[in-house]
Structure formats: C-alpha cells, structure tokens
Design goal:
Elements (H helix, E strand, L loop, with lengths): L18 H7 L7 E5 L3 E5 L3 H9 L20 H9 L1
Length: 87
C-alpha cells in the first residue's frame, strides 16, 4: 500500500486501523503492535511465535564434521566454508 489513508482519533484516544491496512499486514484481534514516535508515528506489527517459527524453518541446516582441533574440510562443506570466510 503506497497511498495515505486518513483516520480520526476518538474521544478516548483510539484510532481504527482501516480494513485494507489490517488485511495487508495480517492484523487480527489481539495482534500486538509497537508505536515508534519521532517526527511521525510509526506502527509496527510485533512478530508472533508463529512468525518466528516460520522464519526458523527457512534456515538451512548442514551437519558439519569438525575434528577435536576445531577444523573442518572446506571441500566437504563449501556452503559452511563460504559463510565462515565471507559471513
């Protein structure tokens, strides 16, 4: 969403997040958000346990054979070696 959406603050200080924004961000009842105030108010959806679990699932797993001196064979583990060298 690139368009600005206008809302109003109620007498109780509440703001309704427009439906299009709630849908775009996956905001549901009881979703936690954070407020960051500088020269503007920035509202961010806080990640849930499910969000973190989905993120962790994407991390590749590679079993690295490391000897008693902390050495490994870079040819046997090229992806790990690249990560160790290049970060």
């Amino acid at each position: 969403m690139d368009n600005a959406v206008i809302g109003k603050v109620s007498q109780k200080g509440q703001i309704v997040i427009p439906a299009a924004i709630r849908k775009a961000l996956g905001l549901q009842k009881r979703t936690e958000v954070s407020f960051e105030v500088k020269n503007e108010i920035r509202i961010k959806k806080l990640p849930t346990a499910l969000d973190w679990a989905d993120l962790v699932k994407q991390i590749p797993v590679e079993n690295i054979e490391i000897d008693e001196h902390g050495h490994y064979d870079p040819k046997a583990h090229p992806d790990f070696h690249d990560w160790m060298v290049n970060g």
